[in-house]
Inverse folding.
């Protein structure tokens, strides 16, 4: 049991597809996958109920495939299938290494490898201390996995959305990799994030969170114990709220 009470009992963790590839140009880095599952295990052991939305950008991005001439709807569906691959890999890591019961729910009908997304079943899995990985985005083209993360968080009554970033520990006024003097926001409102076009997540996802008073924390997943510290209420990353 944690030494202090949990601040968040049920979270929605958004993992980008890019986080799965580590330092590679594409694909999956097994060491990164292991690190992510260890981070998840840390908060699972605290008693946090965990929903996860995964991206697929390490395999294919719909918007980039469209730029190369592919029909956008078809490209987005290919991207959804890429998220299922990442979900299966993460499920295997959580179950094989950490013995954590994990369920994949897919917005596309792929019953051989995943359950269909059913809100009440997802909540029941969480109540039974199972990790639930939501794959295939919303199941609709032209919708990002950021939007899927906001939507699923609202549907499962999550306390917060945790946006895991790579090598960026929060929200900055400009790209800190290009501008070393960029100022980090410790906290800001959704309206400010939309107005300043800070690239936190797409505007549809931000608006969903804002309209439903759902807090968002942007943080660096690869900062050790960051997830655990957030669950226990430490100030990590950048907090976005409606007020």
């Amino acid at each position: 049991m944690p030494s202090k009470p949990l601040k968040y009992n049920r979270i929605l963790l958004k993992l980008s597809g890019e986080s799965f590839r580590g330092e590679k140009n594409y694909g999956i880095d097994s060491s990164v996958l292991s690190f992510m599952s260890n981070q998840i295990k840390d908060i699972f052991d605290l008693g946090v109920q965990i929903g996860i939305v995964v991206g697929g950008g390490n395999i294919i991005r719909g918007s980039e495939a469209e730029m190369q001439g592919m029909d956008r709807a078809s490209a987005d569906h290919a991207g959804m299938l890429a998220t299922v691959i990442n979900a299966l890999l993460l499920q295997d890591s959580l179950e094989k290494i950490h013995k954590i019961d994990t369920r994949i729910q897919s917005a596309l009908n792929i019953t051989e490898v995943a359950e269909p997304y059913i809100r009440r079943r997802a909540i029941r899995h969480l109540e039974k201390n199972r990790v639930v990985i939501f794959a295939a985005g919303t199941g609709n083209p032209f919708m990002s996995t950021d939007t899927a993360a906001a939507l699923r968080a609202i549907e499962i009554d999550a306390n917060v959305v945790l946006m895991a970033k790579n090598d960026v520990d929060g929200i900055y006024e400009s790209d800190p990799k290009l501008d070393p003097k960029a100022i980090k926001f410790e906290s800001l409102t959704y309206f400010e994030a939309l107005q300043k076009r800070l690239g936190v997540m797409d505007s549809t996802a931000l608006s969903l969170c804002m309209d439903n008073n759902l807090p968002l924390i942007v943080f660096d997943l690869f900062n050790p114990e960051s997830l655990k510290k957030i669950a226990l209420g430490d100030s990590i990353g950048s907090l976005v709220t409606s007020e």
Q: What stands out?
A: The chain has a mean pLDDT of 93. The two ends are 32 Å apart (CA to CA). The first helix runs from residue 17 to 21.
